[in-house]
Amino acid sequence: MAIKRRKKSGDVQAGAGWEIVYTGFVLILLCFFIMLCSFSTMVETKVMQFVSSFVNTLSIFPGGMDFEQSEVVLPDSPDMVDIESGIGQIFQQIEKIMKNLRVEGDIDLVFSEEGLVMRLSDTVLFHLGEADISPNAVPLLRKIGSIIQRTPYEIRIEGHTDNIPINTERFSSNWYLSTARAVNVLRFFLKNENISPQRLSAVGFGEFQPIFPNDRAEHCAKNRRVEIVFVELEGNPAKGEAEECQ
Prior knowledge:
CATH class of the largest domain: Alpha Beta
Distance between the termini: 116 Å
Strand order of the largest sheet: 1-2-5-3-4
Number of domains: 2
Mean pLDDT: 79
């Protein structure tokens, strides 16, 4: 009887040992996976902190971390243009005016194959659906006109709209509206600045030359604009002839 009891006791001990080993193995695996999860979370956090710091430092991808599909090709960066050239100096003068008048959000400066393009939103110059220059736009246009007067470049003034149809007593289409706006800006320069009429031209493109698809309100607002193009032609000065605007 004693032998049988010893066998039963050994069987119980063997069974208990297997359960202890299995439980310990499961706990080790659990701790291992918890460690892996903690490590991966730590790495992701560090990576996101690095990316966020990198983006904020270089100011790339403003407003988000994703690329946005677009048909628009970005123009040359100002960093790719000789800052000592006449066009480069004009760029700096206009930037100074934008900051002084606090209209940075209403004006974009880009470079094209023709020269420097100054894009002014319609709201900074006109009231909705109108072509008469707003009184609030007069100080800005006077500053721009002074720069034009001090430079030898030919100036082309372009009117653009979005694709929302307009049909009022004054304007039967966007084409008429965009043309009237461009012509009124030209007239302002002729009336208030000593600029040769031979250097100025005006044209309206209506909705037919958008810079963004007219698929949402923000893009439509960007398409409603007046562009003042400083055209670089052969014989225009390369350096030092853009006088500082006071």
